[in-house]
Amino acid sequence: MGKPANGNGRSTGIRNDYRCSIERNQTGKYCVRVRVQYPRHTWGLSVFFLASSFDRAMKKLQESLHFLQKQEEKLWFWGVDRAADLAFSEEFLKEVGLQLDRRIEFPRKAANLSLEPERDVPAFALGPVRRGLAESIESGRVRLAGD
């Protein structure tokens, strides 16, 4: 397990806030979008990835959250401090199957997750996220069927 941000075993109260959404695209793939706000550096990052099934999307989401948690400093350094070299940030993300999400709008139906910086993503925290994303997919199917 990662060390607390202040090093003394107590929580700092600072938390990274994640918004996650899932949609099916025209080819039937699941498009998972993640928008994270990092309060320590007061910046945000939006990424997305595609998956062929809901289960693969959830596995990739867990891996992506782990990456975004553990690589916060490096992502900030190359994404903000060295923004002139944005190509490096994009390559860094592509190595783990993520792409920068340049879309401004974010779906209203999103699952939220709040984690202490640099901490592992506990499996129990992903249960409500998975349920919320599954419900958003189901409500989209019901809406399409009713059209």
Quick synopsis:
This protein is of the alpha+beta class and 147 residues long. The chain has 4 helices and 5 strands. A 5-stranded antiparallel β-sheet has the order 4-3-2-1-5.
Please characterize this protein's 3D structure:
The protein is α+β, with helices and mostly antiparallel strands and 147 residues long. The chain has one domain. Helices cover 41% and strands 23% of the residues. The protein contains four helices and five strands; from the N terminus they run E-E-E-H-H-H-E-E-H. The chain has helices at residues 54-70, 72-81, 86-94, 123-146; strands at residues 16-24, 30-38, 43-51, 99-100, 111-115. The chain has a five-stranded antiparallel sheet. Strand 2 and strand 3 (43-51) form a beta hairpin. The radius of gyration is 16 Å and the shape is globular. The chain starts with 15 loop residues before the first strand and ends with a helix.
